[in-house]
Amino acid sequence: MRILAMGFTAIVAIAALPSVAMAQGLSRDELVVVVPQEPPANDICAMASSAASRVLNRNVGEGFTYRDPETGELKPLLATSWKQTSPTTWEFTLRQGVTFHDGAPFNATTAAQSIERIFIPKLRCSVASQAFGAVKLQPGAIDEYTLRITTSQEDPILPLRTAFLGMSSPNSPLDNPATIPVG
To answer: Considering all CA atoms of the chain, what is the largest pairwise distance in Å, rounded to the nearest integer?
Structure first.
């Protein structure tokens, strides 16, 4: 009986959330994400693999790919396709018509800058060490929506690793971590 009462209480609480949000002055265009702990950082590149960080990363930042949780298949996100052109070189065709929250365009140049930013030591981007370890990336735009990434060693799973590369706006600071995430 106690479990039934707890379930009923949870249903009532969930049903009340929209009216609570409206009472707090939030519009229907705003998304409020509640997590049990504070994310360790607000910079997209500093998203460690904690539950709080994954929520921020998936709601604000996006990578090139994602793994479908039901099938395990690697799917396109900001990259629409990819191909390996040598053991250390990959080319990604990027999704067109994407803009960051601050209005900056997403293209191969901004993607390359975002990847380079991840490896700036002063920013302490956890994704650099957690997702890539000793592998270093050298990105470069081939054209407006084609990005070439050369790796410091063979990396046959680079498309999977790009799921962790939350893209940052080209307006993100290069000298300090961002305090307001812009994805």
So the answer is: 64
